[in-house]
Design brief:
Length: 127
């Protein structure tokens, strides 16, 4: 299940705080669900272009891809490398951005059946 309004989810994700607690685990605060935070697990496939993610939120537990918690976790990881991310529902939309592309899917999906596209670009420096 994909988010219908991916840009809205991306905007919500930027308001969440996240902290890295392990090599593949990030804890993200939740504004809408108890217990108030969710554990996000991120794995990179061997092709280094596909990212598998899972979250403990209800969206992810119902086979949802790219919840705001996963987006916040990925943004936190990207910030450490001086990058910022954008999310797209189709590869064509992502390709038009002319930045590095990744495919985000659920943990355990062996094919690129359902997921969203991510573009990564350098962060703008403060003036």
């Amino acid at each position: 299940m994909l988010p219908k309004n991916i840009k809205q989810a991306q905007s919500r994700s930027r308001k969440l705080s996240a902290r890295i607690v392990g090599r593949q685990t990030i804890i993200v605060d939740s504004q809408t669900e108890a217990p108030g935070r969710h554990a996000v697990t991120i794995r990179y496939r061997s092709d280094r272009q596909t990212i598998e993610a899972s979250c403990t939120c209800s969206w992810s537990s119902h086979q949802g891809v790219a919840c705001a918690h996963v987006m916040a976790a990925l943004e936190t990881l990207a910030e450490r490398k001086g990058r910022t991310l954008s999310y797209w529902l189709t590869e064509d939309e992502a390709r038009r951005q002319r930045h590095r592309r990744f495919f985000l899917t659920r943990v355990g999906e062996r094919e690129r059946i359902e997921g969203v596209w991510i573009t990564s670009r350098p962060m703008k420096r403060a003036a």
